[in-house]
Every structure is written in structure tokens, then in C-alpha cells.
Amino acid sequence: MIGPETSAETRPEAGRLRRGGRAAKLGSSTGAFDQPSFRQLKIPFPATEIISEDELEAIHLASLRVLEEIGLDVLHDEARAIMKRHGADVQEGSLRVRFDRAMIMEFMAHCPKEFTLHARNPAHSVHMGGNNLIFSQIGSAPNCSDVDRGRRPGNQADFRNFIRLAQLHNIIHTTGGYPVEPIDIHPSVRHLHCLRDIATLTDKVFHVYSLGRERNLDGIEIARIARGVSREQLLGEPSCMTIINTNSPLKLDIPMLEGIIQMASHGQAVVITPFTLAGAMAPVTIAGALVEQNAEALAGLAFAQMVRKGAPVGYGGFTSNVDMRSGAPAFGTPEYMKAQLIGGQLARRYGVPYRSSNTCAANAVDAQAAYESVFSLWGCIHSGTNFVKHAAGWLEGGLRCSYEKMMLDIDLLQMIAEFLEPLDLSEDALAVDAIRDVGPGGHFFGSPHTEARYKTAFYAPIISDWRNYETWALAGSPTAVERANRLWKERLALYEEPPMDEAIREELDDFVERRIREGGAPTDF
Amino acid sequence: MIGPETSAETRPEAGRLRRGGRAAKLGSSTGAFDQPSFRQLKIPFPATEIISEDELEAIHLASLRVLEEIGLDVLHDEARAIMKRHGADVQEGSLRVRFDRAMIMEFMAHCPKEFTLHARNPAHSVHMGGNNLIFSQIGSAPNCSDVDRGRRPGNQADFRNFIRLAQLHNIIHTTGGYPVEPIDIHPSVRHLHCLRDIATLTDKVFHVYSLGRERNLDGIEIARIARGVSREQLLGEPSCMTIINTNSPLKLDIPMLEGIIQMASHGQAVVITPFTLAGAMAPVTIAGALVEQNAEALAGLAFAQMVRKGAPVGYGGFTSNVDMRSGAPAFGTPEYMKAQLIGGQLARRYGVPYRSSNTCAANAVDAQAAYESVFSLWGCIHSGTNFVKHAAGWLEGGLRCSYEKMMLDIDLLQMIAEFLEPLDLSEDALAVDAIRDVGPGGHFFGSPHTEARYKTAFYAPIISDWRNYETWALAGSPTAVERANRLWKERLALYEEPPMDEAIREELDDFVERRIREGGAPTDF
């Protein structure tokens, strides 16, 4: 167990080796293997809308009724006070808060449509909203696995490996929390160790968990130090984000509300994500689950605007169905996809950036993991998702971060990025002259037009095996998971820590060490 | 080898057991397991268009240039004569035919936008065009496999099993040729044995191979007999279909042209499908491959209209990329998906029903098979595909029909069908009262609203395992392919032959036996 006393030994060593010599290199974290460049992805076509404007309005109105007539239980005294001050119906001695629809919509009007998420390496900053698309690594898995060592609880060593993989791969735009929860670090100081690792082993945007005021403030401060900016500048520039899960149904707990208060007041991004599993924490009908999702999202988003008008926010959807025999959540299902699409319609109605997820229920990196994930990504892309949570690494309903799934997802995400690239339709690409030169019955393999282009013509997958059966069988009949297993090891060996200004590194260490000495954050879990 | 002399022994025995007693039962072929009903699927949202009208026009105009300036080699004398009669530029002593653009577009105007494909069981008829969606079983694989017995060449026994599986499952709307090519039947009589099997073991729409006049005419006649209609009625009702693959680049061979002539003149459906693999039989650029695809498709479609104005046709796309190191075709790739979408835009521009495919390059039913297939299906759905070829069973780039992949695809197709179902947005589904009754912090598991609906609330997958890790591990850590392996055996055991009128059965047998005695079709392959 790594606790407050053992912090010195846990400082990532790789950093020390890099001190001094290497010039700060913006852009790609490594040139050691071929990969697409880091770039802001965009979805170039309109979202698919599966319900009409009238039907969308029905969901909207029903959720307003929920907020007005039923309300939410708001456990945080200060939050209730803020809500009351801004016109919500708050009664003495009760946790229940009801929201008038005009008030909700008035605050919703302040949500920014788009904003930048600033990374400590400006080349890795990303944009939220509009038709922008961000892929983030899995967060919060309690366990991790690889094919060789099997499944095990989260720990610091695997945690570090995973964030290295996030840094290595340009298709992963941001980390998304702790890819695996390192339970060998005491909870009171875990966020300090983990965020220091994230801030040094990666230079991408990161996530701060809303588990109490101290964790929020420590996270914000680490973001500020890592970026090397003043507090003033930070207040105007989202430099980290938090996911706020409402306690569906219709409850907001203290850490979540505190998270909104701290993050929004500091100008940091807050993505409100109800966790509305149909039949469990939400009605068994998808429409009903969406009504509940929408009510909770509106309440959270409006509250963020009450805390600070113009606070950068996102509308998160995590509506899915459950296995009614066991209560286990299902992912990547038709119901999940429909909820994704309608969630996107709702987010666009309110002019708020939209978050969805790449999920699966599978216990192995088999066909099920792949189809559930691709169905989820299908839903993400066609719902106009701006921020894809858990885009890489998720397995077992979120209970496990898998090395092999991480690599598989990286390939899938890279394919999707290629799919979203506009097609070259120049005269040269239309190739009438090449067609003429080859002629009927000819072959394009050796033609000059092909020779000049073939090396970069198509996306080269990192997992897909296109060999014919005989060649593949001779090679030992490798399946996708086996190739993924080889690949994560190869890639990890190529990891290089991104440069960090010495003064910043010292300030970061000083802060983290001090907070560890102070005992970190109070923990009752 | 089953040849002309051994036909009597090969008559499917199941049919004999069913004679007499059972009332003709239209609709579901079996009530023995839960499955969604047979129904005409529809895509309820607009296709995704990834290029603008101007860009589409550029492809269209470039393909017209190809037809005018370069032309196609047309190997069939009669076809050239027909083309010449209708205004094409045909020169004595040359196979090359050039097509004036006005002429092409004049004939294209005759393509019907929609038509019905009539099955011998009217409940299994399907509609082509508009926003209709048809899923067909794999066709033409030379090999087959299952996990127990491994990979083997096609044979009659497996062929029969696969078509039984097609009949059993409502989500498979039509067979799509021979799921596996039974090479233990002599080629000269193979179509007679196979089509008799297809016409008796299934009562769904089927495919006729265009491999020479006799095979076309025999197939058309078998369709007529099976439906129990007159020749006159058949001429006005598409009752079978053929896929015409042009010999990309820019060549039409004799069997293909004969297929257009025979099928179109008899009012049977013809789907022109160029086989334009970028870098091999087409330019290495996707835009160029589409120009070539479009030129060949226009030529074939216009020719079908020359043969018979109003001939029911489809525009087929089969553009993909290849592995430039080996020449092996790649499937389910970003390039494949883009070509699917633009092909759909082209087909809609011409007002012709669109065909695409569910494909993969994978050699095993692993994650790769699943993601390539779901990417392909993603492309099908969002390109407005009307007819999905190889929707179930395809593996190994089309070289293998897999039992396990068949079951996996059935699950995927059923999920997609559920995804396309409009959402219930009634007051009851919006569930405000249920939300009120459960209240903040409550649970929906036991609520009356949930109790009343949970049994049918969600799609129940046949492959997906949603169990938690511990339970799944205790059960032996089954992967998707293992579950698929159990499932095809369970399902096959439930197969029941659909009823067939005795007189029709006799007429069919008489026809097939006579043709076998006559030696079937001439074969030089």
C-alpha cells in the first residue's frame, strides 16, 4: 500500500532520465511507430435523428414536469441554498428541490455551445462542442487484465502502463480518469499520486474525480501547475474536466454537487451524466429512461450555470438496458444506441456539447466485445457525440481495463477517424486517365497511378489480419486478441515521457508532497 | 460426386415425412423458439451523405466520360447487337462498345424505383427499393466450417444445413445463392439439385446464378413451378434474382450478359454489381474506384432496360480496398464504408434500389470478424441499402461459410432490426407517473410499470453473454464463438420443412429429373 509516507519512492523514474537534455517537442509524443497525427476530429455529416421535433418536445416537456412536480433530492446544504437563491422551490427541513421550467431554461441558455479544453501541451488541446469529436481513455475500472497475467485488481504499475499507452497514441485525445483504480495507493492520497503521474507521464487533457472538495481543488491546482499558468488564467480556460454522475433516480449527492460547485466556479468543465439503466434506476421504457436522464441533466446543467454563468458544461448520456433476469447492465445494444441518438437530439436542442461512451458487457476480447463496442461507436458517431468516454480499454461492463481491448479500441478509433476524413475527389482521384490507360480487362496493380499512391492510399490497421487462410493458419491461426497482446507490449516499450519544464516539475512535486504530508483528502471509503 | 445418375437418392427426405398431414402454414417457419416475426424491415431515417451534390455530379460525369470515351468490352455478340440497335457505338470486328451519355440516362429513366420480390410463400415476399431493407444469406463460398469439424470444401450436406438455417430464421429474408458451393455435385447438374433443395427446403425468395443460358432458364422455371404460377404471371412478377458481376475493369463476359438478357426479358430481378477493388481491378483511389463502379453499373443497368424497359434492377456496390502488400481484399474498412455511402448516394441519384454487403476478411469468428461485419452493416444502414447481400454467414473474405458466423450474424441482424424499430413515445412510455411513484432514490425493479413490461421490453440476444465475470468464469469462460457453436446445433434440430403443394412438388421433381437426364447445362469449368 502506497501511503503518505512512501510517496518519494513512487515518483515515476522515467522523468529523471529525461531531465535536461531533450528539447521540448510539441506534437506527437513519439515518432517510433507509424500512426495518424494527433488532430481534432470532426464529424462531417449531420447526426441521425430518430424521433421528430414533436416527439423530442414530448420528452423535454415530460422532464420539465418531473423537475416541477417531483423534483430531485439535493443532499448538499450549500447547493440547496444556491438553488433557492436562484429561484428553485426549496423547503426548510427537506432535501427535495423542485425547479420551475422557466428558471431551468433561463439558466440553460447560459451553457456555452463550444469551448476549448487546454492541455499542458498546447498541441494536445481539444475542442468540445459543434461537430468536434474527442476520444478519451477508459476511466474508473476497478480491475485490469492482460492475456498473460489474467485479471487482477487495479494497481499503480498497471495504472501507469495504461496512461503511458494513452500518451503514446494520438487517437486517444485525453485520459478519462484513472484507467484502472490503483487500490494499492491509500484513498486519501490516491488522487495526488495519480494526478501527478497523469500530469507528468502524459501531456494531454485529464479528468478530475469529484469525490469531495479537496480532491476537486487538488486536481484543479495540479492542472494549473502543469500548464504553468496563473490562477486567473486558469479560471478562464478549462484545463481539466469532471464527470458528474447523478444518483439516478433523481438524487444529487454531496460529492457530486461539491464537484459542480468547485469545478464550475473555477471555470473547469463539468459533464453531467445521469446513470439511467432502464428497469433499474430508471423506467424500463427507453423513453421513460430518457425523460429521467433529461430531467437530471437539466437540473445539473442549470445548477452549474447558477454557480457560474457560462460555466463550460456537457450533457452526458449513459442510458442503457439491463438484463432483466440478473440486473446486469447491457451495453452496445439496440436500446443503448437509440438512447444515444435521442440523447444527442436533446443535447443539440439545448445547445450543449454531448458526451456518450464506447462500452461493452463482454468478459473477453472476443466477438462480443468487438460488436458491442462498434455498435456503441456507431451510436456515438451518428448521435453527434462530442466527447466519447471510455473510447479505449473498456471491458466487462466497465469493471475491467484490458490491455488487449485498449489496442483493439485504438485500431477501431483510428478506423473511425479515417472514415470521417473527407474523400479526395480531385480530378486526379477520379482517375479517368488512369482508367483509360489501364483499359478494359487490364490491371491497376502496376499502373503508375497506383504506384504513386498505394503506400498511403489506405488506412493500415494495427490488429486486422488480412492474410489468406493458408498463410494465416501457417502462422498459428492468430486471433485478434493474440495480436493485440503482442502489440501492447511492443508499443509500451516505445514509450517516452513528454518533456516538462523543470520548474514546473518541482512546483508539482512540492505541491503533491505537501498535500500528502497534510494527509491528502478525508476518506470514509 | 452426385451426378445425373444419382439424383433420386438425393431428394431431401424431410419432405416425404411431411406429405399430407400438415396444413399449409403461412408465416413463421417454426414456432419452436423465440424470434422476432418475419417482417419487411425499413430504414426510418435518411441516409448519411458524405459528399455534396456537386461532388456526386463529378463522379457521375467522370463515369459518363468513361462510357463515352473508353467504353466497355462486351464479349457477347447478341448483347453487342442489342446495344447497337439501341444507339450504342459498336464497331465491326471489335468488342469495344461506347455509350453516349444521353442514351445511358434515357434508359436509366426506365429503372423501376421499387418492386416486389415474390416468394413461393407470399408471407415471405419482400420489397426492393424505397426505404425497404432486405437481409440475404451468404452466397458462393467455396468452403465451409464449424468449430468442431473445421474447414472443408463445400458439399451438399452442409449446403442443405445452411439453407435450413436460412429458412429457420425470420431475420434472413432470402437466400442469396448457394451459401456454400457443393462441389460434390457435378457442375452440369448442380444448379438443378441446389435450386430444388432451395425451393423445397425454403419458401423464401432465392437467387439464380448467371452461368449460361440454361442455368438462367432452369432457375426461372424452378421459380415459376415453385410459386405455382403461369409463365405469363411470372413475366410480370419478379420471383427470383441474379447478381451480375461485371469483369472489372470495364468488361462484360458472356454468362453475365446472357444473365441480363434472360433474367430481364423474363421480368426477373437483376442486380448489377461491379467488383471494383481499389488498386487491383480499379484505381487505387476510392473516388476512382467509384467512377469505374458507376460506369460499369450504368452500362449494365441501361443494358437491362434495353433488353426490357422497366426490367426490375438493382445498383450493386462492392468497392473495397486491398492489402497492397498481398493483393488480398480488405473488408469492413473505412474505405469500404465510404464507398458504401457514396454508392448509396449514386443509386438514389438514379432512382435505383441499392445493394451492399456484410463482409469481413477475418479467418476466425473472433473480434476482427465482428468489428469488420458491424462496420459493414453500419455502412449498409447509413447508405440506405435496400438489399444486404451475405448478411449472414460470411467469413474469410467470402471464401468460407461459417456455421458460427451464421449465428453471430443472425444476432447482429436482429439487433439492427430492433434498432430500426421506432421507439414507443406514448404517455405511458414517457413514464412520468412511474417516475413519480418510484421517487428520488427509489428503484424501478419491482415497480408495477416495470413488472408489466420487462418481459418484452428489450431485445434478447442469442449470443451475447451479459453475466458478470465470476458467473461467466464459473461457466467455463465461454466466448461468443463457443456460444454460436452450441446454438447452430440447437436451432438446426428444430428445423421443419415448409409445406409444399403435392402437385407442385411433383412438377418440380419432374422438371428437375428431366433436365438432369438431359445432362443439365454445358460446363467447361
Care to describe what's here?
The structure is a homodimer of 525-residue chains. Chain A is an alpha/beta fold. Helices cover 43% and strands 13% of the residues of chain A. In chain A, the strands form five sheets. In chain A, strands 1-7-18-17-15-13-11-10 form an eight-stranded mixed beta sheet. Chain A starts with 13 loop residues before the first helix and ends in an 8-residue tail after the last helix. The first copy, chain A, has helices at 14-18, 53-70, 77-85, 101-108, 156-168, 187-201, 213-227, 231-235, 254-265, 286-307, 334-350, 367-382, 403-420, 427-430, 432-438, 448-451, 454-457, 469-474, 480-492, 502-517, and strands at 41-42, 72-74, 89-90, 96-98, 114-117, 126-129, 132-137, 143-146, 150-153, 206-207, 240-244, 251-252, 269-272, 277-278, 313-316, 320-321, 354-357, 387-392, 394-395, 400-402. Chain A is globular. Chain A is built from 20 helices and 20 strands. The model of chain A is unreliable at 4-29 (pLDDT under 50). The interface between A and B is large, with 123 and 123 residues.
What descriptive keywords fit this protein?
homodimer; 525 residues; alpha/beta; 8-stranded mixed beta sheet; 20 strands; 43% helix; 13% strand
Largest interface: A-B, 123 and 123 residues
Poorly predicted runs of 5 or more residues of chain A? 4-29
Radius of gyration of chain A: 24 Å
Helix fraction of chain A, binned, reads 40-55%
Q: What structural class do the secondary elements of chain A suggest?
A: alpha/beta
- What is the spatial order of strands in the main beta sheet of chain A? 1-7-18-17-15-13-11-10
Query: How many alpha or pi helices of chain A?
Result: 20
Strand tally of chain A is: 20
The N- to C-terminal Cα distance of chain A equals: 15 Å
Tell me the β content of chain A. Answer: 5-15%
Give the overall average pLDDT of chain A: 94
State the shape of chain A: globular
Indicate the multimeric state.
homodimer
The profile of the biggest β sheet of chain A is: 8 strands, mixed
